[in-house]
Amino acid sequence: MPPTLLIRIMIDLIRITFKKSAGLILCDQVFFYMTSIQQPIHSHFNANSTAAEIAAGHDLKGKTILVTGGNSGIGYETVKALASAGARVVATGRDAHKANDRLSALPNVSFMPLDLADPLSVDTFAEQFLAAYPDLHLLINNAGIFRPPQLQKDQRGYELQFGVNHLGHFQLTGRLWPALRNAGGARVVVLSSVGHRRSELELDDLQSKHHPYDSAKAYGLSKTANVLFTVELDRIGSPHGIRAFAVHPGAVHTDIFRYMTDDERQIWDLQIAHFKSQEQGAATTVWCALSDQLNDIGGVYCEDCNIAPIVPNDAPPGRGVRGFALDPRTAGELWQFSEAATGISWP
Question: Which residue among 76, 158, 219, 301 is the active-site one?
């Protein structure tokens, strides 16, 4: 039995044993921290590596890969690197004209429209995808939205960042579950961010009814949700050969920051010691998708082409993942909430 699967089983046993105890959260977290594989390994790559360097030498002929938001930024570099290795890549986005202008020159790449804020769009996309591709070897949940200036909602009625960054991808992954299982071994890579540090999961106030809307905090909450989704998805998927990884790509200038003012951009530029190129920003995604070093590993948060260390919840900004984003009990609660919000029940 793979050691990571044994860890997950033991966590579940601990949870069952102490489910009536007031110390449930403490027991779960302490046990998880003690046995976690959330710690750096001797990776063959680093923060300066590019997606192309990681994909080099891999033969992905016969593999089907889906990249949301694959028409620009980090997503585009991810698509380009994986397609260059021979994979059949489907990229999604909302603007078909913009996507076709960029993607048409890439071999083995096709485009399908998808709006993650619209559950009908997600269902329509999934139906069309499954009709064309019975197997899905890599699902890369890359698309996202960052800090709109006012409170906006998706078509489910939830705050837009939570709706797009988490709920839309939760629904998409659930709808594509048959193709992931058919692949005979698949990976799901979820783009999170160091911004997860800004907020723990607060399911009781997603609409900011109890405090003024804070777009930065809402973004952080959505990125925490991305990590928690990965934790529970890996627990559910690993018996079927489906592993999940959360990724912080690093600081990269892309179109996702279109809502930032010039003053905010200047402040951000001063705060960041090192910016990555878009090719470097896509590297950790591609590493999680392809690395043999991650065989029998999953449910981890990665950065700079490595598994990130766990840092205290009150640690200053910097590397690492906060423990609250890895808590399996919170991950389970988010999963139940997300099933209810999207109508998706995992088989």
Answer: 219
